Amino acid sequence: MGEVNVKEEGLDGPDEACDPALGKLLALWMSMVCDNEPPLRQTLDPFTLKPWLGHISIFEALDGNDFVIRLDGSAIVELTGENWTAHRASDVDRKYGSHLVDHLSDVTQTKRPVFHRMMIFQKRHFLASRLLLPIRKSMDGPANQVFLALYMDIVQPEE
Hints:
Helix content is 24%, strand content 30%. The protein is α+β, with helices and mostly antiparallel strands and 159 residues long. It has one domain. A hairpin with a 3-residue loop joins β2 (56-62) and β3 (66-71). This is PAS domain-containing protein.
């Protein structure tokens, strides 16, 4: 079990506490959905994602219901103080008692984005909003990648 028992509160979508960048990223993703299939990875290139680049981590599905973190966004690393690139989502779950693998699996299976409000694992007094977006690497393939976007909430609870 992890160091922290993490609370990940599901949200219907961005709210007043969320950084507006998350809503804009969701709108971009939705504009690229075709025939109810998630966008292709090649359409979400660095030029298209420029406004969000440091705030996105890329997870790729592995056999055995786990995900490898292909890239941990630089702003996420700065916010958390940890770089999880090349580690597995299950490593994060083990360390923090989170349910990241379950959430990533749900997103790839349902092909629908998911929002959560959560405390920053490493800085428990800060809340952030997380958006998980399913992505396909190939036209005829499954949703096998997830973009995780993380922003500190612009409204924080008073202490």
